[in-house]
Hints:
Oligomer: single chain
Largest sheet: none
Order of helices and strands: HHHHHHHHHHH
Keywords: Signal
Helix content: over 70%
Number of helices: 11
Amino acid sequence: MKLYNIIILFNLFIIQILGQVVPICQGVTQKYSNCIKSFFEEDIDSKCGTYVSVQCQQLYNSPETVLKDCEQNIIEVSTSYLKEMNNNLKCTCAKNEKGEYCPLSKIIKKTLKNPNIFKEKKYSEIFDELKESCSSKKCVEIGLFYLESLLTAMTNDKNHKFDNEEIRRINDLISYVKNCHN
């Protein structure tokens, strides 16, 4: 996650520098800087409170529109990062129909507080907690979104070799979560 943070901060730095050339772009980046800064907050309630604001939803859901006055290359690079941030925050801030955090959000919260908490566990063991999502359609949907994204990332990652058993267990968990809420 550290490399990801560095890339995002570098990207924002570039936007602000290039925004000097296009003052309108600089104004836009300053207006939405709170949305970006909150991504790095450790307090999940504060992070999610900012994320769900109308202003931040505009930025995350329509970055091309918000950044329309910036140079095209800035828009393209920023859009890619903002979509990744949006997906991350969507999972981190997911709540059930009662307004309580989904099991996935609780897992992410534990990891934010103590990054080494799951160090000795496999992905499939960690995400067995997702089985608690079955009582909520919203939590099932976000859990499936996350697990399917994780599975895609694992199968496409050429730098790390994930064992077939681990991939099978994630597939089993996806099947379980898909079928648990009817």
